[in-house]
C-alpha cells in the first residue's frame, strides 16, 4: 500500500509511482513536509525550524512565540487565528463570525478510490491500483467535520485530492469558500505556468517567474472558459520539455474556479485550487454535507514531457469512460461551415455522398435541424425536428446517410434557450435570471437553469427522445455563451449564491443520464470550441472540439498548448475551407491536413465544391489517417519544437512498444537564405533500427541524439513534412 502512517511521529508518507508526499500532525494541525521524488523512508532531514517572527501571532492556547500558523506549512489552512495568508476555506457561523479552527481527529486508509457523489473524478478499475487516505479534521466549537481525501495511484506520479464538509452541530453554517487542495512550499524559486487565451486562441502557454504576493488564474464566467484553463504548474527555473521539476495541478470541474499561488514575506509559496469563492456561498444546515470537486496533482522530475505523459495516460484510461474510451474515433465531415443554417435533406445527402466516396466514416448534422432554426435567434430548447427542412424527419435522413456506408451524428445545445422558442414562452422562469433585472443575451440566447431538477428532467426527456428516434452514433454537445444574471427562481434568497455550483451538479447529472442511456453514441463536448476543455467534461465525453478556429497555423499553438495536459484522443481537429472562416488565411490542403491529423480527424467544408485534385488529396489523407490513427490517438505524444518559441513546430507519436513512430514538422513562414534545421526525435528505442518512409534505415539512437535533417527543398510559407518510422 502506498500510504504509511508512523504513529510515533504522527507522520503520513504517501508514495505514488516515483513520488513521495509527506505530512505530519503537529499540535493538532496537519503540516506539509515534502512533495517530490520518491523517498524510501522519510526521517525528517528537512525539519521545520521555528522562530519568533514579528507580527506573526501565536494561536491560543500556545504560549510559544515561535509557533505561528502564519509561518507553518499547512495542508488545509484557515483564516483568523494567526495565519494571514489566503485560506483554503472560510465558514460563517450564525453569529456572523468567520473564525474556525480545524484540528486532526482521526484518519483511515482504504484500498481503492471512493467516488465523489454527483461529481466527475478519476477512478480505478481494481482497488489494487490506488490507496486513499481520509483525514478527519474538526472544529470543536461548531462540530464541523472536514474530511481531507488523498488518493495515491500506485503506478502513477499522481495524487488526487478532494474535501468534504459535514455539519454535525446544531447551528446552520455557511461556506464562503471551500477549495479542494492546498500545498505550502518552503520556497518561491519557481516559474508559474498556465494556459490562457480567448475564443479562437485557447490554451496558449504562459510562463513567468513567481513574484511576492498573489498570482492567479480564474473563471467567473460560469464555465472553465476559453480565457483560462483550470490548470497551473510551478516549475523549476531550468525546466524544459525533458529536464527540471514540475508540480502540476488540474481541477476536475467545469464551472467557476480559482487556481492561485501566493508568495509570502518569507518567500514561501502557497498553492490552492478549487471552486471560485467569488459570488459563491453554500448554506450548510445541521446534518447536511458538501462535497468539493477533485484536484489532480502530478509531480514530474523530468520536465513537461513527463508531466504530460502522466496526465495523458491517466485521463485517457482513468477519467474518460465508456465504450469509446479505448476505441479508434471515426473520421467525420461536419456541414456547419459548408451550409450554416441553409440546408435541406438533399443537400446533406449530396455532401455525405462525396464524403463516402472519399472514405469518410461519419456525417455530422450541425445547428439548424430543429424548431424553426433558420438563424441563431430562435428555437433553442425546442428539440423537435424542423419538418420544413427535413420533411421526412431525422430517421429518413440518417438512413440516407447510412445507406452511403456512413454513420450519422447530430449537434445539440441542450443548456441553452432562445427567447423566441416555445419552451421559453411556456416556461420563461426556466432560464438563469434575477428579479427585476434585464436578461442579458449572448448569441441571442439565455442559459437554462440547470440548478432546477425539473429543467434537467425535461431536457433529458427531449434529448433522449431525439437520440432514440434515429440511428445516431455521435453527438456534438455545444454551449455557446457564458453566464450572466446568475440566479434561480427556485432558490430562496439565502441560497442564490449556490446557483452556479448547483448548475454544474445539474449539468453533470444530465450528462451522466444521457450518456449512460446511449452508450453506443460517441459524445463530443464543445463550448464555442474550446471554452470548456476541462477534466470534468472529459469524464462524461471522451473528446472535445478543441477550438472553433480551424486555421492550421492558429491550431499549431492551440493544439500544442492543449497537449500540455490533455491527451490527443480528447482533441477534435478538422480541415476547413480556405480562406479560413476565422482568420481568413489561405494554407495548402496538405498543411491543413497534416495539422488536423494530430487529433481526432475530420473535415468542415462543402465537399461538393472540391476539385478532382482536392478529392484525390483528401482520399490520400483519409487513408493515411486510417492507417495511423491508433498510433495518433493512443500512442505516446512528444513535443519537439514549440510554436511559441519561433517559426517552427514539431511533434511526434510513438507506439507503446516503440515499434512505430510518426513525426510531424511545420514551418510557418519562409525565410531568405535560412539556416538549415535538424530535428532530434524522442521516445524511440535507442537499440532498434528504424525504416524511414519505407526507405532508409537508421538507428533509434542516431535519430534521437543526432537528429533528422529538415529537407532544404521545403519552400514557401506554411509548409509541413511527415515521416513514418517502423522498427525492423
Description:
- Helices cover 19% and strands 32% of the residues.
- The strands form seven sheets. Strands 6, 7, 8, 9, 11, 12, 14, 15, 19 and 20 form a ten-stranded antiparallel beta sheet that branches. The protein has an eight-stranded parallel beta barrel with strand order 21-22-23-26-27-28-29-30, surrounded by six helices.
- Helix 6 (453-469) packs parallel to helix 7 and helix 10 packs parallel to helix 11 (612-634).
- The chain is α+β, with helices and mostly antiparallel strands.
- The two termini are 41 Å apart.
- Strand 27 (522-525), helix 8 (535-538) and strand 28 form a beta-alpha-beta unit.
- It is globular, with a radius of gyration of 27 Å.
List how many beta strands DSSP finds.
38
**Tertiary shape:** globular
Distance between the termini: 41 Å
Which blocks of ≥5 consecutive residues have pLDDT under 50?
none
Radius of gyration: 27 Å
The profile of the biggest β sheet is:
10 strands, antiparallel
Per DSSP, the total helix count is: 12
> What do the pLDDT scores average to?
97
How much strand content do the residues show? 25-35%
Instruction: Please give the share of residues in helix.
Output: 10-25%
Which class best fits the helix and strand makeup?
alpha+beta
Amino acid at each position: 500500500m502506498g500510504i504509511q502512517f508512523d504513529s510515533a511521529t504522527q507522520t503520513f508518507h504517501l508514495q505514488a509511482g516515483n513520488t513521495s508526499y509527506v505530512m505530519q500532525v503537529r499540535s493538532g494541525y496537519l503540516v506539509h513536509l515534502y512533495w517530490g521524488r520518491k523517498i524510501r523512508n522519510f526521517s525528517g532531514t528537512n525539519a521545520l525550524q521555528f522562530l519568533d517572527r514579528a507580527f506573526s501571532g501565536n494561536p491560543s492556547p500556545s504560549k510559544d512565540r515561535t509557533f505561528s500558523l502564519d509561518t507553518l506549512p499547512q495542508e488545509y489552512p484557515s483564516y483568523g487565528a494567526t495565519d494571514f495568508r489566503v485560506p483554503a476555506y472560510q465558514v460563517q457561523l450564525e453569529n456572523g463570525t468567520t473564525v474556525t479552527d480545524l484540528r486532526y481527529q482521526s484518519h483511515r486508509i482504504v484500498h481503492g478510490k471512493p467516488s465523489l457523489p454527483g461529481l466527475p473524478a478519476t477512478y480505478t478499475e481494481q482497488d489494487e491500483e490506488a490507496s486513499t487516505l481520509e483525514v478527519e479534521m474538526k472544529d470543536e466549537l461548531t462540530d464541523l467535520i472536514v474530511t481531507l481525501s488523498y488518493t495515491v495511484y500506485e503506478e502513477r506520479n499522481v495524487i488526487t485530492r478532494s474535501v468534504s464538509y459535514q455539519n454535525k452541530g446544531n447551528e446552520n453554517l455557511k461556506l464562503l469558500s471551500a477549495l479542494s487542495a492546498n500545498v505550502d512550499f518552503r520556497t518561491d524559486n519557481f516559474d508559474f505556468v498556465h494556459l490562457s487565451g480567448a475564443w479562437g486562441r485557447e490554451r496558449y502557454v504562459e510562463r513567468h517567474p513567481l513574484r511576492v504576493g498573489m498570482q492567479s488564474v480564474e473563471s467567473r464566467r460560469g464555465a472553465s472558459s476559453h480565457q483560462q484553463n483550470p490548470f497551473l504548474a510551478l516549475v523549476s527555473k531550468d525546466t524544459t520539455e525533458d529536464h527540471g521539476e514540475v508540480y502540476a495541478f488540474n481541477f476536475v470541474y467545469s464551472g467557476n474556479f480559482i487556481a492561485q499561488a501566493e508568495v509570502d514575506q518569507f518567500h514561501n509559496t502557497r498553492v490552492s485550487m478549487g471552486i471560485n469563492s467569488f459570488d459563491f456561498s453554500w448554506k450548510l444546515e445541521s446534518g447536511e454535507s458538501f462535497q468539493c470537486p477533485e484536484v489532480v496533482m502530478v509531480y514530474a522530475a523530468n520536465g513537461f514531457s513527463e508531466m504530460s505523459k502522466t496526465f495523458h495516460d491517466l485521463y485517457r484510461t482513468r477519467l474518460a469512460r465508456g465504450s469509446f474510451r479505448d476505441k479508434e474515433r471515426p473520421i467525420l465531415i461536419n456541414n456547419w461551415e459548408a451550409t450554416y443554417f441553409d440546408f435541406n435533406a438533399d443537400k446533406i445527402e449530396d455532401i455525405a455522398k462525396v464524403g463516402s466516396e472519399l472514405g469518410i466514416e461519419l456525417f455530422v448534422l450541425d445547428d439548424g435541424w430543429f424548431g424553426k432554426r433558420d438563424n441563431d435567434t430562435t428555437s433553442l430548447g425546442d428539440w423537435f425536428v424542423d419538418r420544413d427542412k427535413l420533411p421526412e424527419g431525422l430517421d429518413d435522413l440518417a438512413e440516407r446517410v447510412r445507406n452511403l456506408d456512413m454513420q450519422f451524428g447530430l449537434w445539440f445545445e441542450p443548456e441553452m434557450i432562445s427567447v423566441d422558442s416555445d419552451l421559453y414562452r411556456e416556461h420563461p422562469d426556466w432560464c438563469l435570471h434575477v428579479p427585476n433585472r434585464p436578461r442579458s443575451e449572448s448569441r441571442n440566447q439565455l442559459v437554462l437553469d440547470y440548478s432546477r431538477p425539473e429543467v434537467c428532467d425535461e431536457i433529458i426527456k427531449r434529448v433522449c427522445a431525439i437520440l432514440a428516434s434515429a440511428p445516431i452514433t455521435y453527438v456534438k454537445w455545444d454551449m455557446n455563451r457564458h453566464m450572466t444574471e446568475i440566479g434561480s427562481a427556485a432558490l430562496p434568497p439565502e441560497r442564490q449564491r449556490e446557483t452556479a455550483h448547483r448548475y454544474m451538479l445539474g449539468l453533470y447529472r444530465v450528462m451522466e443520464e444521457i450518456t449512460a442511456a446511449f452508450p453506443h453514441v460517441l459524445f463530443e463536448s464543445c463550448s464555442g470550441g474550446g471554452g470548456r476543455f476541462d477534466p470534468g467534461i472529459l469524464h462524461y465525453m471522451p473528446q472535445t472540439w478543441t477550438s472553433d478556429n480551424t486555421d492550421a497555423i492558429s491550431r499549431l499553438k492551440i493544439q500544442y498548448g492543449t497537449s500540455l495536459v490533455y491527451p490527443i484522443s480528447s482533441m477534435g481537429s478538422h480541415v476547413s475551407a480556405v480562406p479560413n472562416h476565422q482568420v481568413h488565411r489561405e494554407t495548402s490542403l496538405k498543411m491543413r491536413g497534416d495539422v488536423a491529423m494530430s487529433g481526432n480527424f475530420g473535415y468542415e467544408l462543402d465537399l461538393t465544391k472540391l476539385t478532382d485534385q482536392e478529392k484525390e488529396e483528401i482520399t490520400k489523407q483519409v487513408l493515411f489517417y486510417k492507417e495511423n490513427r491508433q498510433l495518433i490517438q493512443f500512442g505516446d505524444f512528444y513535443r519537439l519544437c514549440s510554436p511559441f518559441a519561433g517559426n517552427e513546430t514539431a511533434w511526434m507519436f510513438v507506439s507503446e512498444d516503440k515499434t512505430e513512430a510518426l513525426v510531424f514538422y511545420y514551418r510557418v513562414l519562409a525565410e531568405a537564405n535560412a539556416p538549415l534545421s535538424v530535428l532530434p526525435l524522442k521516445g524511440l528505442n535507442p537499440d532498434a533500427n528504424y525504416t524511414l518512409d519505407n526507405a532508409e534505415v537508421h538507428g533509434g539512437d542516431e535519430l534521437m541524439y543526432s537528429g533528422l535533417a529538415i529537407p532544404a527543398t521545403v519552400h514557401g510559407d506554411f509548409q509541413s513534412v511527415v515521416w513514418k518510422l517502423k522498427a525492423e
